[in-house]
Specification:
233 residues; two-stranded parallel sheet; alpha/beta; Rossmann fold
């Protein structure tokens, strides 16, 4: 295990856990953040070099204290992956406006707080990466996505603004659009008729996040899209 540290938000049983496993396998210590303390502790026992930090990223005070604790116990992160996501579905007439506000806190404001905390140390070192996992809603607004798409679009634009600021100073910022249904027990039950190739696998998403976080400086990406080979786009 090296001295490098990866911080991953939204470590649930799918993409977040896969990202944590991939970075641990690559020699990183991993600070894992999520709301579900019990599940996070279970994940900690499964991933060598990982440490659980239960927190709701929409709780600004608690989130800040958790970041303080991570820095005190593990140091400042070399890589930050913002994978936490808030979602609500329905037309603009159907959604609860409070849900949109809450999703904005998760998807956008938490990214802002993370970047503001991580960037100074990365700039001092002249290296580092901030990777955000997004989805197709960041690029288009469909009727039933009124409580979700606006926040993901804002997230992507915020990430781009950060990238244009930090990139020339040696810190890589990228946005990974996941244009697919992510494979999980829940998504399988919802669409049992779909073949295996319809779903994108969390481990494959994690592999791409790892790749983007370690791109050579001469060929950095910002907008990255991943989808199954059969996905219409």
């Amino acid at each position: 295990m090296s001295d490098k540290l990866a911080l991953v938000t939204g470590v649930g049983p799918g993409t977040g856990a896969s990202i944590a496993r991939r970075f641990a396998a690559g020699g990183y210590r991993v600070a894992m953040l999520a709301r579900d303390a019990q599940r996070l502790r279970e994940t900690e026992t499964e991933i060598p070099g990982s440490k659980a930090f239960p927190v709701d990223v929409t709780d600004t005070g608690g989130f800040g204290r958790t970041l303080d604790r991570i820095e005190a116990e593990l140091g400042v992160p070399d890589v930050v992956i913002h994978n936490a996501v808030g979602a609500a579905f329905g037309t603009f007439l159907e959604i609860d406006p409070a849900d949109l506000q809450r999703n904005f806190e998760t998807n956008v404001m938490a990214l802002l707080h993370l970047a503001r905390r991580a960037a100074p140390a990365m700039l001092k070192r002249g290296t580092g990466a901030i990777i955000v996992t997004g989805n197709t809603s960041a690029l288009r607004g469909k009727p039933k996505f009124a409580g979700f798409a606006p926040t993901k679009a804002a997230q992507r634009i915020l990430a781009e603004s950060i990238a244009r600021e930090l990139g020339p100073q040696g810190v890589h910022v990228a946005y990974v659009v996941i244009d697919a249904v992510i494979e999980s027990e829940r998504s399988r039950k919802r669409q049992p008729e779909k073949p295996d190739e319809f779903f994108i696998r969390p481990d494959d998403i994690a592999e791409e996040v790892w790749h983007v976080a370690h791109q050579a400086r001469s060929s950095w990406s910002f907008n990255v899209e991943v989808r199954p080979f059969g996905e219409a786009w």
